[in-house]
Write a structure and sequence with these properties.
The chain has about 140 residues and is of the alpha+beta class. The protein has one domain: Aspartate Aminotransferase, domain 1 (Alpha-Beta Complex), CATH 3.90.1150. It is about 45% helix and about 20% strand. A 6-stranded antiparallel sheet has the order 1-2-3-4-6-5, with helices on one face. Strand 2 and strand 3 (about 35-40) form a beta hairpin. Helix 1 (about 1-10) runs parallel beside helix 3 (about 85-105). The protein starts with a helix and ends with a helix. The model is unreliable at about 140-145 (pLDDT under 50).
């Protein structure tokens, strides 16, 4: 179990701009800027925040479980027990990461298309994540300048 979690942490910590720190309830959390992309507990439990629409779709397709402490939130839980679970946990974390990554991408549309292909997103998940692709990159850059 610890080997899977170590692999998980090693992989996620290599993603651009991800910071890793201790989580207040044990384990490690992964941040992109000030946003938490998700966290992992030493028992193999991965918790990840999503917009409610994405969370509901993940639950409906049995790709994740309700969060055990805040089941009516956007958070999901996934348990890593074996190698295949590790790959799925990384897929879930990438979905969360993508949402935040789109906010700062130079070409968010291109990033979204590439990530959708790499993650093999179904049309349903693409449509749920589409609203997070910034529409006007020039205006967004001017506001942050």
């Amino acid at each position: 179990m610890l080997e899977f979690l170590r692999k998980f942490e090693e992989e996620v910590s290599t993603w651009p701009h991800v910071l890793t720190q201790s989580h207040r309830f044990g384990g490690k959390e992964f941040l992109l800027g000030s946003a938490e992309v998700g966290h992992v507990h030493w028992g193999g439990i991965v918790d990840i925040p999503f917009p409610r629409s994405v969370r509901d779709a993940l639950l409906a397709e049995r790709l994740a479980e309700e969060h055990r402490w805040v089941p009516n939130s956007g958070w999901i839980t996934f348990r890593v027990r074996r190698e295949a679970d590790l790959q799925h946990a990384l897929w879930l974390m990438r979905l969360s990461y993508l949402r935040y990554e789109l906010k700062t991408a130079a070409d968010p549309r291109k990033l979204f298309e590439e990530a959708s292909e790499r993650l093999q997103l179904s049309p349903k998940f693409k449509s749920l994540l589409e609203p997070f692709v910034p529409k006007n990159v020039v205006a967004r850059k001017m506001v942050s300048a």
